Amino acid sequence: MTKAILSGNEAIARGFLEAGGKVAAAYPGTPSTEVLEVLSQAKGIHAEWSTNEKVALEVAIGGSLSGVRSMACMKHVGVNVAADPLMTVAYTGVNAGLVLMVADDPGMFSSQNEQDTRHYARMAKVPCLEPVDSDEARSYVRAAFELSEAFDTPVILRTTTRISHCKSVVETAEPAAVKDKDLANDVPKYVMLPANAKKRHLVVEERLAKLRDHAETAAFNEIRPGKGDIGFIANGIAYQYVREAFPDAPVLKLGMTYPLPEKKLRAFAASVAKLAVVEELDGFVEEQLKALGLTVHFGKAAFPPCGELTARTIREGVGGTAVVCKLPVGGLIVRPPTFCPGCSHRGLYTIIAKLKLYVSGDIGCYTLGALPPFSSMHTCICMGASISGAHGMSRGLALKGVKQKPVAVIGDSTFLHSGITGLIDMVYNGGDALVVIMNNDTTGMTGGQEHAGTGRSASGAAAPKLDIGKLCQAIGAQRVREIDAYNLKELEQIMKEELAAPGTAVLISNQPCVLRYKVSKKPYHVDTTTCTGCKMCLKSGCIALSFVPGGKKGHVEVDALLCNGCSVCSQLCATKSMINT
């Protein structure tokens, strides 16, 4: 064994290789993304960015059925997309080991909700493992594959943001000598016709009973003796907070949070005067303990169900301080996120804001159009919802006799993920909306990953490049036009034309991501002798611009180190004081 300092995601990738994994599929989503990024550079395996999370899990299922250990990786909301195959593969079971790695995001650092994946484990009746640090993240992958094969079940490996992104010491090991299996060929087991599924449901229930027995003796669940009247039950990163807040207290560390070890839980509860259950997000374990008739003295009434926990919140909760879910007050001023200097989204939202359009939004960098100075996105539900949502709005408005054409804004990766079906529905059902696809040739918000429209695979190798414009035409969209999001005058004219025309229209911007492709033109500077301080240029919301008070009205300055020379600010300047010559 050798030691290395790895993040939880890097450790999971390492664990996959050590476990003899061969097929890995994922859709990028913070905080899970780095697992596949690491695996994409490994030799002798297949690692891919799939079109979406459902496809990723289905690819991993196929890998398992082919006879090789396989894993799908995604963030918590991705499991919503992958839930369909997950619920059924729980019935079929596996051939070679199958692991679903899911990263939850307490605190919503890059997510639209704080969903708790453990509920999916209970719904699917499959095991859920939760490491407490990077080393366990590595070793739990191998354990998950072994558990999967021993009990003929998919296994969920759940992390949270802190586990995925924090680094700690990992003891690496040599890859295991895993013998691949033959291609699965068992129709009653793997073809879920109702007659077969009825029999497999019985198998699922029998398996769950066996897993409950296994949980009693599994090394995942460990009682660590200590001193004091309060005993803590904790899992994942919450375990680390408990050890920091109460280093000498007795703790039952749950590495398997579903199914739970009933006998061990009862024995631990009986050994302490008071019981505290510390878990981020929902009271998943607490609820089950109460269903067993155990008294929980400190649970979600003491520790908040919103956001991340800390050692401090645990100490305060045990100390009797009332805990409520609320946003922090005071402290440092938070700088809101914004578009990168030179981003093509800035030009689009400048015109959308000017025309005061109603925007059905989506998940990606362009979601920032909801923030000032644009304030020009009015809904954001989930991946792909912009197009179907805009279609529903257009139908509802028409029924009310309101002549208003909604605008859907979506990115290239999100369009391929789940926007295609929405556009098919809109065209098929006579929708009257404007769809703007911001194709920046990457999956931008998660760090610039490849997808089917970039012409490159996860490893960077050349791959077929999907033509989004031709795809939209094949779907049946009659009005498909390419736009230059940096040319404000032309963009405004095109948008007015398409908003006036009846039916579905698709505008496609094909400007590359300035961060991913390091796009940079000659920076602008301000002629302070002609600048009147009108601040029109600041409506572009670019962080390369700043206003300097002084004189009669002050003037604007451009930070040449940040400016990418996109020209949006110069097109807004009434006095032509923005110069890049």
Describe the protein in words.
The longest helix has 24 residues, at 194-217. The chain has a seven-stranded mixed β-sheet, sandwiched between helices. A five-stranded parallel β-sheet has the order 14-15-16-18-17, with helices on both faces. The protein folds into four domains: 3-217, Rossmann fold (3-Layer(aba) Sandwich); 221-317, Rossmann fold; 344-510, Thiamin diphosphate (ThDP)-binding fold, Pyr/PP domains (Rossmann fold), CATH 3.40.50.970; 525-579, Alpha-Beta Plaits (2-Layer Sandwich). It is built from 19 helices and 22 strands. The termini are far apart. With 581 residues, the protein is of the alpha/beta class. The mean pLDDT is 94.
List keywords for this structure.
Rossmann fold; 581 residues; 4 domains; alpha/beta; seven-stranded mixed beta sheet; five-stranded parallel beta sheet; 17% strand
Annotate the secondary structure layout.
Elements: E1 2-7, H1 8-18, E2 23-26, H2 34-39, E3 46-49, H3 53-66, E4 70-75, H4 76-92, E5 98-104, H5 118-124, E6 128-129, H6 134-151, E7 155-160, H7 161-165, E8 167-172, H8 187-190, H9 194-217, E9 221-224, E10 230-234, H10 236-245, E11 251-254, E12 256-258, H11 262-270, E13 274-278, H12 284-291, H13 311-318, H14 344-355, E14 359-360, H15 385-399, E15 407-411, H16 412-428, E16 434-438, H17 468-475, E17 479-483, H18 488-500, E18 505-509, E19 525-526, E20 545-548, E21 555-558, H19 568-572, E22 578-579
Helix pairs in contact: 1-6, 3-4, 10-13, 15-16
